[in-house]
Structure formats: C-alpha cells, structure tokens
Specification:
about 150 residues; mainly alpha; two-stranded antiparallel sheet; 2 strands
Length: about 150
C-alpha cells in the first residue's frame, strides 16, 4: 500500500481526498500518462508533482481552455489554439537530496488546534520558519533544466 493510501485512510484527510477525487474526475479524460495514479502514490515528491499537473489542468479547463489529450511521451498539457498548439509541462521541484548544501530543508508543520469551548483557533506554538529563497530558486532552476534536458528542448 502506498503512502498516499495510508494517509487518506485517516478521517481527518477526508475533505482533501474528496477534493482530489473531484479534480481527477475533471482531469482524467485529458491525462495521457498511464502511470499517473501509480506514480502519485510512490513518494511525496511525485505526489506533489502530479497534483500540480492535475490542478493546473483543471484551472485551465475551468477557465474555458479546450484541453486535448496529450501524448504520454511529451509535455503534460496540450491546448489547441486556432492553428497553433500550446504545450505546457507542469514542473514541481523537489527539496533536493538531504545533506546537499543547495537542498531546501523540510518544513516543520504545526496542526491547527481549536478551543473546545469557543471553537476559535488557538495560537500556534511552534517555531517559525524562514525559507531560504536562494535555495528555492536553485531547486526551480534545477527542475526546469532537468525537464528541458529530458525533453531535448535545449
């Protein structure tokens, strides 16, 4: 069982599961990758990459763009536009390898808690987190370069 399957079995994530299933219902007819759902469950990195692709496709559909089923070997999203075709490759960078000085450290999340008497959110008690923007920029640059090299677009 994949990590996503274990996660969605927890009741507190039901609304996210419903949300993602709704996105999938809208996006699935335009997705050409036969491994989409399997890859989504392989790791958190693949999960976020696939969710980004699916969200982007759904937003384009909701904005009225006529998506066409793309080839499983090319970019993720295809939009016929008059005589032209617009290709979109959805790229979501990973944090990088642990120990690499250019990797982005994992964020520590604190779950929002509510006062049982009033229902009001309680103040967060965890430490703050300041993101190293240069490392994030490097991760995006690496993801785009890797995708370009893979697609022979350079």
């Amino acid at each position: 069982m994949g990590w996503v399957s274990k996660l969605v079995q927890q009741k507190k994530y039901d609304r996210y599961k419903v949300y993602l299933e709704g996105l999938w219902q809208l996006y699935e007819p335009y997705n050409a990758d036969p491994h989409f759902q399997r890859e989504m469950q392989e790791s958190s990195e693949k999960f976020y990459q696939r969710v980004w692709e699916m969200c982007l496709g759904c937003v384009l559909l909701e904005q009225g763009f006529p998506l066409k089923r793309a080839s499983s070997r090319g970019p993720d999203i295809c939009i016929p536009y008059g005589e032209q075709t617009i290709w979109i490759e959805a790229v979501a960078p990973t944090r990088g390898e642990k120990g690499n000085p250019n990797s982005v450290p994992e964020m520590a999340y604190e779950e929002l808690r509510f006062d049982p008497a009033t229902g009001e959110p309680l103040p967060l008690e965890g430490r703050g987190y300041l993101l190293d923007e240069e490392k994030v920029k490097l991760r995006y640059l690496h993801a785009i370069r890797a995708k370009n090299a893979k697609c022979n677009l350079l």
